[in-house]
Amino acid sequence: MDILKTFGLFVLTAIAEIVGCYLPYLWLKQGKSIWLLLPAAVSLGLFAWLLSLHPTAAGRVYAAYGGVYIFVAILWLWGVDGIRPGVWDVVGSMVALTGMAIIMFAPKT
User: How far is CA 95 from each of CA 2, 15, 85, 105, rounded to the nearest angstrom?
Assistant: First the structure.
């Protein structure tokens, strides 16, 4: 799987996971409709399915995915929560993405 396809799949996976967790948060913390749990469950199912599409060992996929999740969560902080990331948020995200790239794309021994 090439680099852009892998990264894109991880980004979609992260969005599905964040949406699946954010909707119950809205219900629990902001008094929104309990019906938000239905699309949340679908989103979390999509998240699990997307993770299964990577053609490598599950443990490696889960470890590498975490780096992209961090990056997407910081974008969510900015785009949805309206909080501009600080310099250390950006630096941390770049470190996490570097870790993802090493795990997924370094030669396997």
Answer: 21, 20, 15, 15
User: With pLDDT > 70 as the criterion, what percentage of the chain qualifies?
Assistant: 99
CA–CA distance, 80 with 102 (Å, rounded to integer): 29
Question: CB of 62 within 8 A of CB of 24?
Answer: no
What is the C-alpha to C-alpha distance for residues 107 and 109, in angstroms, rounded to an integer?
Answer: 7
Distances (CA, A) of 55 to 2, 21, 45, 50, 66: 11, 26, 19, 11, 17
* pTM listed for this prediction: 0.90
DSSP assigned state of 59: H
Is 1 strand, coil or helix? coil
Instruction: Give 3's pLDDT tier (boundaries 50, 70, 90).
Output: confident
pLDDT tens digits, one per residue of 56-103: 888 999 999 999 999 999 999 999 999 999 999 999 999 999 999 999
